[in-house]
C-alpha cells in the first residue's frame, strides 16, 4: 500500500505545483502584466487548468483512491495522510461529476463576462452586462445540476468553497445576525452622534502609504523574506508555497483607510498560509481550510486587531512617523473613532463593521432567488435597490454603485459572498476563545502580536486544509459556527463608541 500512497502523493504534488504555477501567472496578470499579454495569458492559464483537471479526474487517480480508501480507515483521522486522501477523494468526486465541456464553457463565459463587466461598470451600463450575467447564472444552475443529491442548487456552489455547509445553515446563521445588526445600525443612526473621520481624508502620498502599511504588516508578523507587497486594482493575497505568500493593496492619495486596512486584511490571509507547517509544503493540504475560515483570519487582523482601541496605540506612531504633518497631533482615541465611523454606504468593500454583513446578506438572498428562478437576471437592478432600501435605508443612485460594483459574478463566483460574513462571525469565535488564554488588549497596546499569532498557529494555521471547515471549527471551539461572540463584540464595541 505504501507504493500506492507514494504514487498518489506524487500526483497530488503535481496538482499542487501546477496550481501554484497558475497562481504566479494570475498574480502577475493583476500586478505587472502589460495589457498586450492578456490573450496569451488567458490561454496559458486555461492550459494549466486543463492539465490539473486531467490529473485530478484520471483513471489512475480513481484507482489509487479506491485502493487507498480502505487503508485510510486504518489511519489516525488526525494524520496528514488521512487528510490528504480525504481531500483528494472530495476533489475527485466533484471534478468527475463536472463534464469537461461545462468547465471550459464556464471558463470562456467568465473571461468574456469579466471584460464586459469592466466596461459596463465604467459606463454604468447594466444592459450591456445583462446577456453575460444571464449566461453566468445559467451555467451556475447547470453546474449545480451535476450534483443531484443536494437539497438546493446553492449547496452545490457553496460546497466548492465551504465544504459541507448548506444554504439552510447559512440562512439560519444570517437570520440570527441580521435583526441585531440592523437594530444596532438604526440605534447608531438615531443616536445623533457623528464621528469625525476627516483625519483619514487628507493628502497621503502613495509611497509613504505603502511604506507605513508594510511596517504595520511587519508588526503583525509579516516577513518580507517570505512575502512582498504590490499594488493592484482589486487587492488579494496569494500563496506560491508556505515560504512565499504575497499580498497586494491599492492606494487612494486622498484617503488613508483602503491602503492601510486593505494591507492588514491581506496580511491576515498571508499569515494563515505562512503558518501552515513546512512538512505540508508541496501538498494541496498546505493551504487554508475554506474561504470562510480564511476570511476569519483576514478580518481578525483587519478589524479585531487593526480597528481596536488598544492597537491604535501601536499603529498610530507608525503612521505619525510617515505623516507627521497630517497625523502628528492626532490621539490614539481620535484615530480609533475615525476608523470606526458607522455610516450606511453603497459599496461593500468600504462598509463599516456594523453594516458590512448586511451587504453580504443582500447578495446571498439575491443569489438564492436567482437560482430558484424567483428572480430574473434582468430584474436584478430593481431587486438590488429594493434590498438596499430595506436593509440599509439607502438607495444606490446608479448601478455602478449598486449591482455592478463587485467583480465576483463575472468570475462565476456564485455561492461565494457568504464567506466574508462567515469570516466575521468565525473571527469572533477565535477571539473569544483566545481571550481565555491571552491578555489581548495589553499585547495589542504594546504592538506585541506574536503571542496572538502563535495562538492562531496552534488552533488554526497548523492544520492547513487537513480538516473540513466544520471539523476544524468543532475541534478548535468545541462547537459549530456560533454567532454569539460576534454579536457580543459588535454590541460591546459600537455600543460604547456611540453610547447606544
Ligand atoms: Zn479577504
Provide a brief overview of the structure.
It is built from 21 helices and three strands. It is mainly α and 500 residues long. The model has no long low-confidence stretch (mean pLDDT 95).
Kindly describe this structure.
The chain is mainly alpha-helical and 500 residues long. The protein has two domains: 2-124; 167-498, Neurolysin, domain 3 (Orthogonal Bundle), CATH 1.10.1370.30. The protein is 64% helix and 3% strand. It contains 21 helices and three strands. Strands 1-3-2 form a three-stranded mixed β-sheet. Strand 2 and strand 3 form a beta hairpin. Helix 9 packs parallel to helix 10 and helix 15 (353-372) packs across helix 17 (418-434). The radius of gyration is 23 Å and the shape is globular. The mean pLDDT is 95. Bound molecules: zinc ion.
Question: Which structural traits does this protein have?
Answer:
500 residues, mainly alpha, Neurolysin, domain 3, 2 domains, 3% strand, globular, binds zinc ion
SSE diagram, text form:
Elements: H1 2-31, H2 38-56, H3 59-74, H4 80-97, H5 100-123, H6 126-145, H7 153-158, H8 167-190, H9 206-220, E1 229-231, E2 237-241, E3 244-249, H10 257-274, H11 291-305, H12 309-322, H13 324-327, H14 332-338, H15 353-372, H16 380-392, H17 418-434, H18 440-445, H19 450-459, H20 469-477, H21 484-498
Parallel strand pairs: 1-3
Antiparallel strand pairs: 2-3
Helix pairs in contact: 1-2, 1-3, 3-4, 5-6, 8-15, 8-21, 9-10, 9-12, 10-11, 11-17, 12-14, 15-16, 15-17, 17-21
Bound molecules: zinc ion (ZN).
Residues 265, 269, 295, 298 line the site of zinc ion.
Amino acid at each position: 500500500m505504501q507504493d500506492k500512497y507514494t504514487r498518489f502523493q506524487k500526483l497530488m504534488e503535481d496538482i499542487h505545483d501546477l496550481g501554484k504555477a497558475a497562481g504566479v501567472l494570475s498574480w502577475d496578470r493583476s500586478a505587472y502584466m502589460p495589457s498586450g499579454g492578456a490573450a496569451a495569458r488567458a490561454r496559458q492559464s486555461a492550459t494549466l487548468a486543463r492539465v490539473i483537471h486531467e490529473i485530478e479526474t484520471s483513471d489512475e487517480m480513481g484507482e489509487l483512491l479506491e485502493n487507498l480508501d480502505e487503508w485510510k480507515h486504518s489511519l489516525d483521522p488526525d494524520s496528514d495522510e488521512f487528510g490528504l486522501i480525504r481531500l483528494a477523494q472530495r476533489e475527485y468526486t466533484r471534478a468527475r461529476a463536472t463534464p469537461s465541456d461545462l468547465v471550459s464553457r464556464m471558463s470562456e463565459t467568465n473571461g468574456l463576462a469579466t471584460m464586459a463587466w469592466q466596461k459596463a461598470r465604467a459606463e454604468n451600463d447594466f444592459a450591456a452586462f445583462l446577456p453575460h450575467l444571464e449566461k453566468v447564472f445559467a451555467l451556475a444552475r447547470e453546474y449545480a445540476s451535476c450534483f443531484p443529491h443536494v437539497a438546493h442548487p446553492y449547496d452545490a456552489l457553496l460546497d466548492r468553497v465551504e465544504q459541507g455547509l448548506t444554504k439552510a445553515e447559512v440562512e439560519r446563521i444570517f437570520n440570527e445576525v441580521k435583526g441585531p445588526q440592523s437594530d444596532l445600525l438604526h440605534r447608531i443612526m438615531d443616536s445623533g452622534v457623528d464621528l469625525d473621520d476627516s483625519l483619514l481624508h487628507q493628502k497621503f502620498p502613495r509611497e509613504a502609504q505603502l511604506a507605513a502599511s508594510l511596517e504595520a504588516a511587519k508588526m503583525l508578523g509579516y516577513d518580507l523574506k517570505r512575502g512582498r507587497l504590490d499594488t493592484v486594482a482589486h487587492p488579494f493575497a496569494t500563496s506560491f508555497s508556505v515560504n512565499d505568500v504575497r499580498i497586494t493593496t491599492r492606494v487612494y492619495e486622498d484617503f488613508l483607510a483602503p491602503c492601510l486596512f486593505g494591507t492588514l486584511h491581506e496580511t491576515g490571509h498571508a499569515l494563515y498560509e505562512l503558518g501552515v507547517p513546512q512538512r505540508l509544503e508541496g501538498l494541496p493540504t498546505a493551504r487554508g481550510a475554506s474561504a470562510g475560515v480564511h476570511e476569519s483570519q483576514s478580518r481578525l487582523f483587519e478589524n479585531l486587531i487593526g480597528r481596536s482601541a488598544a492597537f491604535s496605540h501601536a499603529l498610530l506612531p507608525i503612521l505619525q512617523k510617515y505623516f507627521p504633518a497630517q497625523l502628528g497631533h492626532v490621539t490614539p482615541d481620535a484615530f480609533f473613532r475615525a476608523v470606526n465611523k458607522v455610516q450606511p454606504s453603497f459599496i461593500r468593500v468600504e462598509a463599516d463593521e456594523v453594516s458590512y454583513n448586511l451587504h453580504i446578506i443582500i447578495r446571498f438572498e439575491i443569489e438564492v432567488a436567482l437560482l430558484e428562478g424567483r428572480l430574473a437576471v434582468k430584474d436584478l437592478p430593481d431587486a438590488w435597490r429594493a434590498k438596499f432600501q430595506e436593509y440599509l435605508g439607502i438607495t444606490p443612485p446608479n448601478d455602478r454603485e449598486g449591482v455592478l460594483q463587485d467583480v465576483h459574478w463575472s468570475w462565476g463566483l456564485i455561492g461565494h459572498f457568504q464567506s466574508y460574513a462567515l469570516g466575521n462571525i468565525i473571527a469572533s469565535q477565535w477571539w473569544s476563545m483566545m481571550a481565555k488564554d491571552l491578555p489581548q488588549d495589553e499585547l495589542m497596546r504594546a504592538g506585541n502580536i506574536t503571542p496572538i499569532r502563535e495562538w492562531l498557529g496552534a488552533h488554526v494555521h497548523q492544520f492547513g486544509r487537513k480538516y473540513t471547515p466544520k471539523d476544524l471549527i468543532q475541534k478548535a471551539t468545541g462547537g459549530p459556527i456560533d454567532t454569539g461572540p460576534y454579536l457580543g463584540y459588535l454590541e460591546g464595541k459600537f455600543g460604547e463608541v456611540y453610547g447606544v
